[in-house]
Design brief:
The protein is an all-beta fold and about 140 residues long. It is built from no helices and ten strands. Strands 1-2-3-4-5-6-7-8-9-10 form a ten-stranded antiparallel barrel.
């Protein structure tokens, strides 16, 4: 069964970010997944209006069901994460080194579409939540 990180592919995304007051910001973007023998690269960007956010991740498999990640050029600092795989679902948790920022994301794949849901916190204070729909392009 395939999950979001199981094969090289280009994914188009439409996302919504919601702050604690309920304000919604919409974004469009791409995630390019490149799977090699020793690592997975996730090069992604999202545009909210005229602002483009880029996050690139190097992901290293520990086992068939666990991966570790580090962001390569984060805006907020070095993001360290862990992915756990259950069939077509990727569960991830992460923190930003040297800060109290932390969060999680769950990505569920059905055929050539994924749905993602996540939250970012500063310590225990909610910064924002998000949801995204991703469609495989190639």
């Amino acid at each position: 069964m395939k999950h979001f990180l199981s094969e090289s592919a280009l994914w188009y995304s439409e996302s919504e970010f919601v702050d604690p007051q309920g304000n919604i910001a919409k974004a469009s973007g791409e995630s390019k997944i490149t799977v090699t023998e020793n690592e997975i690269l996730n090069e992604n960007w999202a545009e909210m209006g005229s602002q483009r956010r880029i996050n690139n991740y190097r992901i290293v498999p520990v086992s068939n069901t666990e991966y570790h990640s580090e962001s390569l050029n984060p805006e907020l600092g070095i993001q360290i994460g862990q992915f756990n795989i259950d069939r077509n679902i990727v569960y991830s948790r992460f923190c930003i080194e040297g800060t109290e920022l932390n969060g999680f994301e769950v990505i569920v794949r059905e055929n050539n579409e994924c749905r993602a849901f996540g939250s970012l916190y500063s310590a225990n204070q909610l910064v924002n939540t998000w949801k995204a729909a991703l469609v495989k392009h190639e």
